Amino acid sequence: MLTSINIAVLTNERRLYGSIKSTMRDMETNWQVELITSPDLIRITEHHWLIVDTSSFSPADLDKALTGWQNGLIALTSFVDVHSINVLLDQYKIDHIVGVNGRNCVSEIITIIRKSQSGSVFGLSNYAETGAVVSDWTIDHAGSVDQLVQDIADKVDWDQTFSEMKESFKTLANELITNAIYNAPRNESGIAKYKETDRRIKIELAESEVAHVTLIDHPEYVGISVCDQFGGLSRIETVKHLVKCVNDTQFIDYKLGGSGAGIYVMYYTVSQFIINCDAGKKLEVIGIIEKTKRYKRHRQRVTSFSYFAVDGGKR
User: Fold this and answer.
1) What does the CA dihedral 183, 82, 62, 102 come to, rounded to 10 degrees?
2) Does the domain made of 5-118 have the CATH classification 3.40.50.2020?
3) Which partner from 157, 204, 228, 252 sits 20 to 30 angstroms from 148, CA to CA?
C-alpha cells in the first residue's frame, strides 16, 4: 500500500477543488491533492489518482485527459444524458463515476480511493456512518422472499421520506434478492443453474448457494447489500446491461428476470450503485438511497456508479 497518495483534480471549478482538498486534508493526512486546470498539466508518472470534473471540459479535452490513463480514475459528472453515460462507461472504461449533486460527493470519492488502495472492497460497512443501524439476513429459499423484503423494509425509518421511496426500495430489494437466488448460483461448468427457471417456481438453495443481505439505516440514507458466493457479474456484463437499459428500457424481461432487470431497477432507484466482485468467488451488489431528498430532487439526482474488481479480476 502506498504511504503517500498524489491526487490530481482536473477542474475549472476552484470551489469544487477547495471542497475536495479541505475534506481530504481533514480525513487523510498522507494524501496530496493538486489542482490541474488543463489536461496538458497531468503528470502520469507522479499522480496516483485522477479526479476529472467532466462538466469543465470539452469532449476533445476530456479525450486528451482520459485516453491512455492507467492509474486510479474517478469521473465527477452532472450529466444524466445517455450519451455521457455511454462515453464514460463504455468508451473510456471508467470504473468510478460520482454524481456531483449527491449528498456528499467528496465522501464518496474518499471511500472509492480507500477501498481501492486497501484492497478490502467488500462490506456495506464501508458506507456506514456514525448513527447507522446494521441488520443482516440469510437468503436460502425463494418462497420466503416476499416476507424477507417486508422484514427488511420494516427495519427502516421512513418517516421523513416521500411516500414512493419505501415501495421503490422494496422493489429494489426484491430484485436483488431474487437475482441472488435465480441468477447467481453456478454449476461446475460455471453456467447459471437457475437462470432459465421461471421465478414463480420457488426453489430452495443448497448450503453452498445461500446468499446474504445486509441493511444499514441512517437518518440521511438507507443502504442494502446482497452478497453471493459465485462472483458471476463481470464489469463487461454490467456495463452492457447498464448502457442498454439507459438507451432502451423495453429489452427487460421481468418474467425471466436476470441481472439486466436488477441493474435497471438499481440504476433508476439509488443514489449510489456499487458492485464488488471477486470473479468466480464472491459478488456484492450495493445500493444506497438518500432519504433526505424530496421527490423532485431525488428524480434529478445523478446516480454514482462503482465497479471494484478484486486483484484486477475478470472484467
Assistant:
1) -70
2) no
3) 252
